[in-house]
Specification:
Chain A: This is ER membrane protein complex subunit 4. The complex is a heterodimer of chains A (179) and B (988). Chain A is built from six helices and one strand. In chain A, helix 2 runs antiparallel to helix 3, helix 2 packs parallel to helix 5 and helix 3 packs antiparallel against helix 5. By secondary structure, chain B is mainly β. Chain B contains eight helices and 65 strands. In chain B, strand 17 and strand 18 form a beta hairpin. The longest helix of chain B is centred in the last third of the chain and has 31 residues. Chain B is globular, with a radius of gyration of 34 Å. The N terminus of chain B is likely disordered. Classes of the chains: A mainly alpha (179), B mainly beta (988). At the A-B interface, helix 6 and strand 1 of A face helix 1, strand 44, strand 47, strand 52 and helix 6 of B.
């Protein structure tokens, strides 16, 4: 149950614990009621707790996959927003594009943290992580693509020659109508 | 849908953002006069008539050489009203009729007009025709009446007219058709109805016609032959006596025609003045009994004492000017005489019959920069003690107009500025400790008051009086007229050369004259009889390492009107106006070519081409020579010979041959020539790019991130030729026999890069050349409308430079120097549009780095300056631009160019007689300074793409301040609140 507690203690303010606490060794300073012997119950419950642990890891794995898939929804949302924003450069489309770029980057920075709650020796997290990273990279690509469609990426010749000074001429000629 | 409606405000915001980007140049009412100034002038006064009889406002009516008729306030010299007649409508005479009409005779005596004296409205206009061209005279006699109608007597085009003063109807006319008759005077003796017309016929015959002024009947015609002929003008010495000179200029002839009998009296000048040599000339005047002749540098006043006897009244070698006579009471006539003596002028008012006595004698200190007195006009007033007082209007050599009264200059007008020949600019000195000229506010209280007012204004608490005060403070801000350089480069000196040979420095802030200098080298002198100022060039523009030097300008002038007269160069310090030096050249100046090289003191090298096609290098220093020799083989020059339709290109050869060895003189050889067939083409306009124009980039990015490379060359000449028949006025030819051909010629190689023919088009052509485009204005005879055409040049040989990686790594040769002898592959794009106005001048805005988009400045026929975006003259405009092109800013094509009333840069003002528009870049990239000159001067600042690099004048500082304060307060309050809340939380 330390793991469960860990969930509760790691930054979460509160949690409702639906598991039966009656078999847990008393972590509080409250004495057990008279006539109640804890030891016998504990011995009987060892198989039950194993089963419970299995269920929990299953649940964790499931959750991890869910978390890994979450950016997909985001991706769809972002795509819709981008379509709405149009292809002209103005305040709104720039805002959308930069948020589309920033979200995947910040998510990628925090990959470890996102999957930390589901860390378990029995839970295989590599799959969900890879999916998560792939989806976020997809989001990033979408952002970059949008940036390009807005014409903010220097991918054209025009972006490199627009400030080229005119070439100097070797010859010089002056004159005109006599004054 | 919810999301859509959520986006709508954003879209609206975006639209607003876009619409605010499209430049609208209009001003708010209270911004007039902040950036701009306008000065009104009239030009050099030819004739002045006073109107002071009535008790109303005292005024003087003047006509000027700029073809202006104006009514000036005698008290301050301000203009009551003013009319500018066309340049082909030269004023011959003015007078006042019936005390309430100004009568003007113009166009060689063929148009007579009457204007209402108080407000200048035209009352009537008459066309007077005649059998032949002649001198014209305008007389408004006070006592000649035909059936109660006051009469104006006009002699013009060989015909004498009597015109009604009320409605301009011709009452009678009399022709003088004798073939060789040349009228010299039309005389109306007071107190009779007779009119005398005297003149010469066949150069040796004196003719006199006596005419009845009531009906034009010829009463008498007498003629006498005088064998040795006549010279020049005649001077009227009484109503029935004139004085003339014989053809040798050494014998004075007194001709009297009393009672219709002509009698001659000859007096050799040597009898009057023993040292007489050489021909004399008569100074035209009309003082009874006295006339003046000038011989060599001596002026002789001669009195006529009855029966043609002459007597010298005074001889003087001072410069003198004499006025016409002014009738005083009791049949007396007074006149004014002005003599120069050193830095003073002596004014004497004398009675006509009494030379030795003076009614008035004053000496007035006169600014040497005004030169000599050219004309004098006298007027009298009755003092409170019933004696006569006199005021004198004088016209100076620099064309300024001064009113003298009671020994002082009451007012002066700098009317030389009405005839500007050339303009250049100069920077002001850099602000240093002790150099600052700006005045500090009077005292602390004033200063505080000013700032309180400003604060009130920004917080919108000011009352209407306060607003007016703030406005006047804004307009008079001493910041504008400081004599030091400013950060934005708005404050500069405009150096202008006027036709009078005077150089003025005007401050761009408020237009005041910083200094003025009558060029000594443009003074008449022995070797240089009639010097003419030609052009101004920037000689030395110190920056970087030559900061301590003052900038200077070069004034090129010529001794006389012919093109092979020797030239004169003068160098003027632009901070002080002092003439640093002047050079009288041995050679003529046909062309001045400023070279793109400067020496170590930032003096620009100039090449002067003389009439024998020798090139002379200035400054004549060994350093300049070594710089020049280094670039020798790359310097070419071309000449446009308009009269025979040839454009020739030349290269330089070493050293002049013959005469004296001069290492600064170079022979030239002809390289190429473009000959236009004289039977079908005649050159009417040539335009080049401005030498100091800055171009930011050679690439033009078009829709879809594509690139076009501009063909940018400084050595391009735009030439327009028309059919010789079509040189006349618009409409004088049919569209079939008139055409207009535009050429773009490379002036180094003589290669014609582009040629386009406009059939059925006619001049005059006005054009402007900038970067890679040229815009020109002409008349389309088929459409009966003016057209503006644009030609843009693109370099096809660079078009392949589209590999991004090469460009990123810099592996391209787009910026390496190019030679014009390599064959350019130029493609052109052009388009034409109708344009409503006829045009007096076209210019283009220029900015410091050439990044800001350009505007054309069009001087319209209404003497206003219209700013037209270059985007309207884009050959890539099409009727239905694609989405990408629209995004690029391409305007859908229309047949005519729009004239948006708000884009007149002169707003409500007019620059009368507009002749030129000059644009100068400010240091701030967005802004350009515009100076328009004609009879009036106008200056303003323009920002063709709005002031994107600085806050505008109307920026809401109050809102910014309030927002900042509110934000700080909010931060503080929320911080306190959160702290309190945290504390409460902890106690829970």
């Amino acid at each position: 149950m330390e793991k469960g507690k860990g969930v509760m203690g790691s930054g979460q303010r509160w949690a409702v614990d639906f598991s039966d606490n009656s078999t847990a060794p008393s972590s509080r300073d409250i004495l057990d009621p008279l006539g109640f012997t804890r030891a016998s119950v504990d011995q009987d419950d060892s198989t039950v707790s194993r089963q419970k642990k299995d269920a929990e890891s299953n649940w964790k794995a499931q959750k991890a996959w869910e978390v890994a898939q979450a950016p997909f929804k985001n991706l769809l949302m972002m795509g819709f927003m981008m379509w709405m924003a149009g292809n002209t450069v103005h305040l709104f489309s720039i805002g959308i594009t930069f948020s589309a770029l920033w979200q995947p980057i910040s998510a990628l920075q925090g990959v470890g943290k996102v999957f930390e709650p589901y860390k378990d020796s029995k839970v295989e997290l590599l799959g969900p992580k890879l999916l998560f990273i792939a989806l976020n990279l997809g989001g990033l690509a979408l952002g970059v693509w949008k940036l390009n469609t807005l014409g903010l990426l220097p991918t054209h010749a025009s972006d490199w020659v627009s400030s080229l000074p005119p070439a100097q001429e070797v010859e010089y000629s002056g004159g005109g109508i006599p004054i | 849908m919810a999301i859509r409606s959520f986006f709508v405000p954003f879209l609206l915001f975006g639209l607003y953002f876009y619409s605010s980007l499209s430049p609208v140049l209009s001003l708010y009412e209270d911004q007039v006069g902040l950036m701009d100034w306008h000065q009104q002038y009239i030009g050099k006064v030819k004739q002045a008539v006073f109107s002071t009889q009535k008790t109303g406002r005292r005024r003087v009516i003047v006509s000027t050489e700029e073809n202006v008729i104006a009514s000036l306030d005698l008290r301050h010299g301000e203009i009551f009203w003013r009319h500018l007649l066309g340049s082909d409508d030269v004023i011959d005479g003015i007078d006042i009729g019936l005390g309430k009409y100004v009568i003007t005779l113009s166009s060689g005596g063929s148009i007579l007009r009457s204007w209402n004296l108080p407000d200048g409205q035209m009352v009537w206009e008459s066309y007077l025709q005649g059998p032949k061209h002649s001198k014209s005279f305008l007389l408004v006699p006070t006592n000649l009446k035909i059936e109660k109608d006051s009469v104006i007597v006009v002699f013009s085009n060989g015909r004498l007219h009597a015109v009604s003063c009320i409605d301009g109807e011709v009452l009678w006319k009399k022709d003088f058709e004798a073939e060789s008759f040349e009228v010299q005077q039309v005389i109306k003796p007071p107190g009779s109805d007779l009119i005398y017309v005297v003149g010469f016929a066949a150069s040796s015959q004196f003719e006199m016609y006596q005419i009845n002024g009531r009906n034009g009947e010829l009463l008498k015609h007498e003629s006498t032959t005088f064998s040795s002929g006549f010279l020049g003008e005649v001077s009227l010495v009484s109503s029935e006596t004139v004085v003339a000179l014989d053809s040798t200029g050494s014998i004075l002839l007194t001709i009297s025609f009393q009672n219709g009998e002509i009698s001659f009296q000859q007096t050799p000048i040597s009898n009057l003045y023993e040292h007489f040599s050489g021909p004399a000339i008569i100074i035209p005047s009309s003082v009874p009994g006295i006339f003046a002749i000038k011989t060599n540098a001596i002026t002789i006043f001669i009195r006529v004492i009855g029966e043609g006897m002459l007597e010298v009244a005074e001889k003087t070698n001072h410069e003198t000017a004499i006025s016409d006579s002014l009738p005083l009471s009791e049949g007396q006539q007074a006149f004014a005489l002005i003599q120069h003596a050193g830095s003073e002028i002596h004014l004497a008012v004398k009675l006509a019959h009494d030379w030795d006595g003076n009614l008035l004698k004053e000496s007035i200190k006169m600014n040497q920069q005004r030169g000599l007195v050219h004309k004098v006009f006298i007027n009298n007033y009755i003092r409170t003690d019933k004696s006569h007082g006199f005021r004198v209007l004088i016209v100076m050599e620099d064309h300024s107009l001064l009113l003298l009264q009671q020994g002082t200059i009451v007012w002066s007008r700098e009317d030389g500025l009405a005839s500007i020949i050339d303009v250049t600019t100069s920077e002001l000195p850099v602000e240093r400790d002790g150099v600052s000229v700006a005045k500090v506010e009077h005292n602390l209280f004033e200063w505080l008051k000013g700032h309180m007012l400003k604060l009130k204004g920004t917080l919108m608490l000011a009352s209407p009086e306060d607003v007016a005060l703030i406005q006047s403070m804004r307009l008079k801000s001493s910041e504008k007229s400081k004599m030091t350089r400013d950060h934005n480069g708005f404050r500069k000196l405009l150096i202008v050369l006027t036709r009078a040979g005077k150089l003025f420095a005007l401050h761009t802030g408020d237009g005041h004259i910083v200094w003025s200098h009558l060029l000594r080298s443009l003074h008449k002198s022995e070797p240089c009889q009639s010097p003419i100022g030609l052009n101004l060039y920037q000689w030395q523009v110190p920056h970087h390492h030559a900061m301590d030097e003052n900038p200077s300008v070069l004034v090129v002038s010529r001794c006389g009107p012919s093109s092979d007269a020797p030239g004169v160069l003068s160098f003027i310090d632009t901070y002080t106006g002092n003439e640093l030096s002047s050079l009288s050249l041995a050679h003529a100046v046909a062309q001045v070519i400023p070279l793109p090289y400067t020496d170590s003191t930032e003096q620009r090298l100039h090449l002067l081409i003389d009439s024998d096609k020798h090139a002379h290098l200035y400054p004549k220093t060994s350093e300049a020579l070594s710089i020049f020799k280094r670039e020798f083989s790359n310097i070419y020059w071309y000449s446009v010979e308009g009269h025979n339709g040839i454009i020739k290109g030349h290269a330089l050869k070493y050293e002049c041959t013959g005469k004296v060895a001069d290492e600064f003189c170079f022979d030239t050889r002809e390289l190429w020539s473009v000959v236009f067939p004289s039977e079908s083409e005649k050159i009417i306009a040539t335009v080049t790019r401005k030498l100091n124009e800055v171009v930011h980039t050679q690439a033009k990015v078009i829709a879809d991130q594509d690139v076009m490379y501009k063909y940018i060359s400084k050595n391009l000449l735009f030439v327009v030729t028309v059919a010789p028949k079509g040189c006349g006025e618009i409409g004088s030819v049919t569209p079939e026999e008139s055409w207009l051909v535009a050429y773009l010629i490379d002036t180094v190689t003589g290669r014609i890069l582009h040629r386009v023919t406009h059939h059925g088009a006619q001049g005059p052509v006005h054009a402007v050349f900038s970067e890679n485009w040229v815009v020109y204005h002409y008349f389309n005879l088929r459409a009966h409308r003016y057209e503006l055409s644009v030609i843009e040049l693109y370099d096809q040989s660079r078009a392949d430079n589209k590999d991004v990686w090469k460009l990123v790594l810099g592996k391209h040769n787009l910026t390496s120097p190019i030679s014009l002898f390599s064959r350019p592959e130029v493609i052109t794009k052009s388009q034409s549009y109708f344009f409503t106005h006829s045009v007096k001048a076209i210019a283009v805005t220029s900015t410091a780095k050439g990044i800001t988009s350009k505007q054309l400045l069009i001087g319209t026929i209404g003497d206003q300056v219209l700013a037209l975006d270059k985007r309207f003259l884009d050959p890539r405009r099409s009727v239905n631009p694609t989405q990408a092109e629209k995004e690029e800013g391409i305007i859908p094509l229309t047949d005519s160019l729009p004239i948006i009333p708000q884009s007149y840069v002169t707003h409500a003002l007019r620059v009368e007689g507009l002749r030129g528009i000059i644009t100068v870049p400010a240091k701030l990239e967005s802004t350009t300074l515009v100076f328009a000159h004609g009879v009036d001067l106008f200056f303003t600042q323009l920002a063709p793409s709005r002031t994107y690099d600085s806050l505008t004048e109307d920026f809401n500082y109050a809102l910014l301040l309030i927002t900042i304060v509110a934000l700080v307060a909010a931060i503080f309050v929320t911080w306190r609140l959160s702290e309190r809340k945290e504390l409460q939380e902890k106690w829970r």
